[in-house]
Amino acid sequence: MESIDLLVLRSAHDWLLAGERVLLATVARTWGSSPRPVGSMMALRGDGRVVGSVSGGCIEDDLIHRYTTAYRGEGMPSSPPQVERYGVSADEAHRFGLPCGGTLELILEFDPSLASLGQLLQLLEDGNLVRRELNLQSGQVQLTTSVAPEPFQFDGKMMGNPLGPGYRLLLIGAGVLAEYLATMALFNGFKVAVCDPRPEYMDGWDVAGVEKIVGMPDDVVRAFTPDLRSCIVGLSHDPKLDDLALLEALRSPAFYIGVIGSRRNNQLRRERLIEHFGETEASLQRLHGPIGIYIGSKTPAEIAVSVMAEILAAKNGITLPSAVDVSAAKRALEAQD
């Protein structure tokens, strides 16, 4: 499953290619509580079909009523981009289902350039980080690639929206837990690969949409070239596979690196990496283990939920409270016994 941004852009491109009228809406600014962050996009086809979201649904309904034939609306104008603000008053916020005090501003692009969307999609599919800059007066779009993500910007005249590359997850170990975690990662828009040199594990492992890589994990991690939107998770329960892969991962800028195992096994792993591979307590600060958040999980499916939650928190820059740390939670429970 591809990311929602790619799905919106691809839908808009394909609709335009088929000769349909298209509205591309982007959340430009928010005040107070808002259902969707800045940069969120939706594509609206002339007959009322919608892909993506800019709110909880009521604003989408208003745009459908106004700009499509679904409810005999005004139709889409042939004009430069427009700015539309919702939720200025408490009554309007309530009408459009915005949280208390919520106000958001949308940029509406009518029939965006088909050629520009095609170029943007190709750049994103090639793994580039792209900044899409829109001039609201002329409607002209400029695409630039960069090596580091930049924040969304809007000054009333120009919009700069950073897009891609997609988030990636590399799983070490083709077991049952990897199947559940891969499925959840795909659902959250990650591109997923699984690596295992053991044919008895890999031959029977099959999750649609996941790349299967047979090879030694440390070599695979190097070839994977992890970036700021990559995460690596060791699930093999075999130190010969997990440890070397983790060492390679720790040399990368991956935003999340974790490994399965009990508190004792993770402590022994840290001691091995320090004693035999020159790591330090400081260099191992980025290594998550035991992985996941504490929800009392026992089954592979529940463990995958807890691991995915921790990955998403890291992706979103959220520092989790100590109460959900697996080691801290288990120590607290032991102290109660």
UniProtKB/TrEMBL annotation:
Gene3D superfamilies: NAD(P)-binding Rossmann-like Domain. InterPro entries: MoCofactor_Util/Proc, NAD(P)-bd_dom_sf, XdhC_CoxI, XdhC_Rossmann_dom. Residues 15-72 form the XdhC- CoxI domain. It holds the Pfam family XdhC_C. Residues 169-311 form the XdhC Rossmann domain. It comes from the Bacteria. This is XdhC family protein.
